[in-house]
Design a protein that fits this description.
The chain is α+β, with helices and mostly antiparallel strands. The chain has 15 helices and 14 strands. Helix content is about 50%, strand content about 20%. Helix 11 packs parallel to helix 13 and helix 13 runs parallel beside helix 14.
């Protein structure tokens, strides 16, 4: 038995299925043969008894017993009947069992064989018996012959050989045997195809390998820090790891597998993804006073959506990483720009000193100090948020490095962010648009490189304007400028910044537009409502 379970699944299915089909066909055939044999035997028994009764009641037969040569009268009559009913023999005997008729004439006058005449000759009963006569084992109907005075004067025996009965049953069974063989062939072919199909559906894996993969999958799911949840096409939960339990504040002792997602997360948009088949990336949701960033992707089978996979993390964790990365990137960029600009300034001061122009060197030092001090003080006064202040200062230094006249509009002011607006989103929006503006002026002569930034929270919206003196954007390209992967520049990893800007602005229910600026280049205008819109 152990060896059987070591056989490959494909072969096990074939062995079991073919064996089961063979057993069923064999049992059904045997049952059919048994029923058919009993039916044929019963019908022949009735025929034998009926014919024997008919012959025993014939006046010619009864009167022949009182003649000098009974067999001369009886033999022709019963032989004619025997041929008509296709019996093996019809024997008529007297009270002592001496034959008056027999299919073999030479046996007439001899004693009947079988020893089963007693009930008919002594008791006067009609019956069917099985016995071995002179022609072999047979099924025989026995009926007594009643004389003129009501006495028993003889017996009529009508017989069918058992061998002939078997041949008759086999003849009836031939079509059934053919059908059984056809069923066996169809079942065998079907089991082979089924085993092959199951093997393909299981990607050629054995049950032990699938079990190992399941354990590995569970280990992987539990090792990641993100919450992972999978629902089927009916909205029922199939998979949920421990991180998901923790993020969603669910009782770990409570079994949620198989439950409807509506009972765990009412009004979730997972069902929307299940219905539309459109993925949702980096969606911010609130659940039990927690802010969560979630990604939802449909699971497709051909063109059908058969489920949804959702991965999510607490926004506080992502914010912490974003803040750290943004600060590092911002400070790195600012320091790099400042270092480069400071080196240029040092080279200039060194050259002036070597030329003996000490007064000009001192004047340059004083001028640079005052300019930088004025800009920082103005920035701190107008922009209260350190995140925005930091990135603006970084781009100010970057502009000096690129020989761009960067103007931070004097009308700018920003007191504080509304609670529903994530300042990291605004940093990303401004960073991508300003970077795009600087890159647009790569081919512009140094003397004409200009950029302007306006930030204001006056009115009902936050307003951002970024303008450059580049070549601008063709009106025909504006409908495509925010599509992911679209770019007017060559090189890899392009066309991502503005598409991300569009996503962030849309998520905050804002709008973004492109116009022609006073500098001759593109003017990006971003508006974001200060009041949160509720759906």
């Amino acid at each position: 038995m152990k060896k059987f379970w070591k056989v490959k699944l494909h072969d096990r299915i074939n062995i079991f299925a073919i064996g089961l089909i063979l057993l069923i066909v064999l049992l059904c055939s045997l049952l059919y043969f048994q029923i058919l044999s009993k039916t044929v035997e019963k019908q022949l028994s009735k025929r034998a008894l009926h014919v024997a009764t008919t012959i025993a009641l014939m006046p010619e037969i009864q009167n022949a017993f009182y003649t000098e040569d009974p067999s001369g009268v009886i033999q022709p009559i019963v032989e004619k009947i025997r041929v008509q009913i296709d019996a093996e023999y019809i024997v008529v005997g007297n009270k002592e069992g001496i034959r008056y008729s027999h299919p073999l004439p030479e046996r007439i006058g001899k004693k009947m064989v079988g020893g089963d005449n007693e009930k008919a000759l002594k008791d006067g009963k009609s019956y069917v018996s099985k016995a071995t006569g002179s022609l072999g084992p047979s099924l025989r109907g026995k009926v007594p012959v009643i004389g003129k005075n009501g006495e028993i004067i003889g017996v009529v025996s009508v017989g069918f050989l058992i061998e002939d009965i078997h041949d008759l049953v086999f003849g009836y069974a031939k079509p059934v045997i053919r059908i059984a063989l056809i069923a066996l062939v169809i079942g065998t072919v079907g089991s082979l195809l089924l085993a092959k199909r199951i093997k393909r559906l299981m990607f050629g894996l054995e049950p032990e390998e699938i079990a190992a993969l399941l354990m590995q999958r569970n280990a992987v799911l539990e090792s990641v820090r993100e919450g992972i949840m999978v629902i089927n096409n009916e909205g029922h939960i199939l998979i949920m790891n421990q991180a998901a339990y923790e993020i969603l504040s669910l009782d770990k002792q409570k079994q949620v597998i198989g439950e409807s997602i509506d009972t765990i997360m009412p009004n979730t948009s997972l069902l929307e993804v299940l219905k539309t088949g459109k993925k949702q990336l980096d969606r911010q949701i609130e659940y039990k006073d927690k802010e969560i960033i979630a990604n939802r992707l449909p699971v497709m089978l051909g063109n059908d959506v058969i489920g949804v996979v959702s991965s999510f993390r607490l926004k506080s964790e992502i914010d912490q990483l974003t803040e750290e990365l943004s600060q590092v990137k911002r400070y790195t960029e600012a320091l790099r720009a400042q270092t480069h600009e400071f080196n240029n300034l040092l080279y200039t001061i060194s050259g002036l000193i070597q030329l003996g122009s000490s007064d000009e060197a001192l004047e340059l030092i004083h001028h640079e100090k005052e300019n930088h001090k004025d800009f920082v003080q103005f920035l701190m006064k107008k922009i209260k948020d350190p995140w925005l202040g930091g990135i603006i200062l970084g781009f100010y230094n970057r502009a000096k490095e690129l020989k761009i006249s960067f103007q931070f509009d004097r009308e700018s002011s920003l007191e504080k962010f509304p609670k529903h607006i994530d300042n990291s989103y605004l940093v990303s929006i401004l960073g991508n648009i300003i970077t795009n503006a600087f890159e647009a002026m790569d081919e512009t002569p140094y003397r004409n490189r200009k950029a302007r930034l306006l930030i204001t929270d006056l009115g009902e919206d936050l307003l951002f304007e970024v303008e450059d003196s580049g070549p601008g954007i063709d009106d025909k390209l504006i409908p495509f400028i925010f599509e992911k992967g679209f770019s007017t520049k060559n090189g890899g990893n392009r066309g991502l910044g503005l598409s991300r800007v569009k996503e962030l602005v849309k998520e905050m229910n804002g709008s973004i537009s492109i116009e022609k600026g006073d500098y001759g280049g593109a003017l990006f205008i971003v508006t974001i409502p200060k009041e949160e819109k509720t759906l």
